[in-house]
Design goal:
Helix content is 51%, strand content 12%. It has an 8-stranded mixed sheet with strand order 7-8-9-3-10-11-13-12, with helices on both faces. Strands 1, 2, 4, 5 and 6 form a 5-stranded antiparallel sheet that branches.
Length: 608
């Protein structure tokens, strides 16, 4: 079924049909029309298009239309042969460095890098001079011109696989380098190589036609589309049809190969782009634990910077969970990771990352776009300032639900009304700058409601809003949860907001969850010193107005600054030597309450 993914898109299906037609012509055209294409008629030399000769005749009176059809076999065959030579050569050059001695591998890699620096057509002309004029020389020239880019791709893919654990295990077991390459590496990179080989075939076809057009490819009496194009060009100002037939054939065939390759590449990216390196979930921790199941989530950037370090939590249907912590604690990046929005060069890994009972990397864009809604903290930058609000909301339903433009606009007005924006039909025709800050935030929530969300991720939705508007937004999220039975993951730096609206709270610090507990126990049962410090830093009606406001000394560590021990130890009044040298695991105190701290429950209770 995975091989048929390419046929599910209109582009893939259309290009596949064209390829089938080309193959049929290559097989049957010489048998059906070979004699008519070779028949010489001295009474019809150099004629233009007519009912008898659709594209006219050449200088010997031969029918050009039939010659174009018959030339399909030689053109396609030579292009595929050149591609095969290029792919095999590139595969060898790209993979042998993995089994050669280090000095030899460097020589091969350097040679490939130098060759890649030159344009492909320039390489083809260079090799054509070396191998000489004719069909054989042109095939070798194009094949060797393709090889460097394919070798570079093979090197990159091989390097990405060679560092995985199963390769290391094979080496430990004593498996030889060549066997590792053929049994473990190449099978894992075969799919992208096949996709790129298809693209290379289209390039080889057009390049071969170019060499024949220049007179250094196929020689008489043989002919391909490039040679027919060159012959027809001499008469283009008198009658363009002879050149047009061969030109159209080259363009259509080249597009068929390239579009099929692009469609296959798109299908490959869709299957692999979500969670890089995701491993099977551990026994007993299946993807069906909740609506959103996250186990050991990590986000890594170049240089070993890891701003999210082993985050695990579960969101159940209809549940509202708050995530709190200071700026830089990893709250927003965690939300982006579970929404598949972390961009290159960031890398997301997890033991389990499942949404609605399905691994996130297997969830289709259409399902994720309608079942998961993301409300960003700054709607000013989240909306396109050059498009009307209604158009931007309607686009969600047009893309993910296949609605017509008119029906999607009606739904956009309905959703704006659902978030209590007055005159929604009129507002759909306005631009973002015509909305107030609170209205833009509600419009962002309305965009999330264009689907049927099972989970709403609200990333600090009340930032920069006044208290009254904050309450309206929070009540709106609670209403969405009640009316639609949707779960809400509310990210906030204000722990009191979370305490008032959520069922559970996750406290994050330095990229980890340091405490998780029910919000109705937050003020009485919080055990982590960071959680208690956050609570003390929030003034209430009983706060002594003559005393200085409570603050947390110091600042959170940067992701690249996290060393051994508990990251909160430099700011913690209870820290001892163990805290400074060993980082505690997140352990369960009792059902629904987890904390990452070396201190006993009684010691933590004593500082409250």
């Amino acid at each position: 079924m995975r091989r048929l993914t390419v046929l599910r898109s209109p582009v893939g299906a259309a290009s596949a049909v064209l390829l089938v037609v080309l193959v049929l012509l290559a097989v049957f055209a010489p048998l059906l029309w070979g004699d008519r294409a070779a028949a010489i008629d001295t009474d019809a030399i150099g004629q233009g298009p007519s009912a008898e000769h659709l594209l006219g005749t050449d200088q010997l009176g031969r029918d050009i239309f039939y010659r174009v059809l018959v030339a399909t076999r030689l053109t396609i065959g030579l292009a595929l042969l050149a591609t095969l030579i290029g792919v095999v050569t590139g595969l060898v050059l790209g993979s042998v460095p993995a089994v050669l001695p280090r000095w030899a591998a460097r020589v091969v890699t350097s040679a490939v890098n130098i060759a890649v620096a030159f344009p492909g057509l320039l390489l083809a002309l260079f090799f054509a001079v070396i191998f000489g004029t004719g069909t054989t020389g042109a095939v070798l020239a194009i094949g060797f011109a393709i090889a460097p880019s394919f070798a570079r791709l093979t090197q990159t893919l091989t390097a990405s696989v060679s560092g995985r654990d199963f390769i290391a295990a094979a080496r430990v077991c004593g498996v030889g380098g060549f066997r590792i390459l053929t049994r473990h590496v190449l099978p894992n990179i075969a799919e992208p190589l096949v996709v790129n080989a298809t693209l290379a075939a289209g390039s080889a076809l057009t390049a071969f036609a170019g060499l024949s057009f220049l007179g250094i490819g196929v020689q008489a009496p043989s002919y391909d589309w490039g040679r027919l194009l060159g012959e027809g060009l001499n008469r283009i100002y008198v009658t363009p049809a002879p050149a047009l037939g061969a030109a159209v054939a080259v363009v259509v065939a080249g597009l068929a190969f390239n579009l099929f390759g692009e469609a296959a590449a798109a299908g490959h990216r869709q299957r692999t782009r979500a969670v890089t390196g995701e491993t099977p979930h551990p026994a007993g921790e299946g993807p069906h634990d909740g609506l959103l199941t996250v186990r050991n989530l990590r986000v890594t950037f170049p240089g070993g910077v890891e701003p999210v370090r082993g985050v695990s939590f579960t969101v159940h249907d209809g549940e509202m969970i708050g995530v709190v912590g200071e700026s830089g604690s990893g709250k927003s990046l965690t939300a982006l990771a579970v929404s598949r929005l972390v961009e290159h060069p960031g890398t997301v890994t997890a033991d389990t990352l499942a949404f609605n009972g399905k691994p996130l990397h297997e969830t289709k864009d259409q399902e994720l776009g309608t079942r998961l809604a993301m409300v960003f903290q700054d709607p000013t930058t989240s909306f396109n300032p050059t498009q009307r609000i209604g158009r931007q909301l309607a686009e969600v339903s047009e893309v993910h639900q296949g609605m017509s433009r008119k029906a999607a606009l009606r739904k956009a007005a309905d959703r704006l009304g659902a978030v209590r924006i007055p005159e929604p039909e009129h507002r759909t025709g306005q631009y973002p700058h015509e909305f107030s800050g609170g209205m833009r935030q509600r419009a962002m929530i309305a965009m999330g409601l264009m689907g049927e969300p099972q989970l709403v991720i609200a990333d600090e939705p009340t930032t920069a809003l006044d208290v009254t508007v904050q309450q309206e937004v929070l009540r709106l999220l609670a209403q969405i949860r009640h009316d639609r039975s949707a779960a809400v993951l509310l990210i906030s730096h204000d722990i009191t907001v979370v305490a008032q609206t959520c069922d559970r709270v996750l406290v994050m610090y330095a990229g980890r969850i340091v405490e998780e507990l029910p919000t109705d126990e937050l003020f009485e049962a919080a055990r982590h010193p960071y959680t208690t410090a956050l609570l003390k830093a929030v003034p209430d009606m009983d706060t002594d107005r003559d005393a200085p406001l409570a603050v947390i000394p110091g600042r959170p560590p940067e992701p690249g600054e996290i060393g051994p021990g508990c990251p909160f130890a430099p700011r913690c009044p209870l820290a001892d030597e163990q805290c400074r040298t060993e980082e505690p695991d997140l352990t369960t105190l009792r059902d629904g309450h987890r904390v990452a701290c070396w201190k006993s429950e009684s010691e933590l209770a004593g500082v409250r």
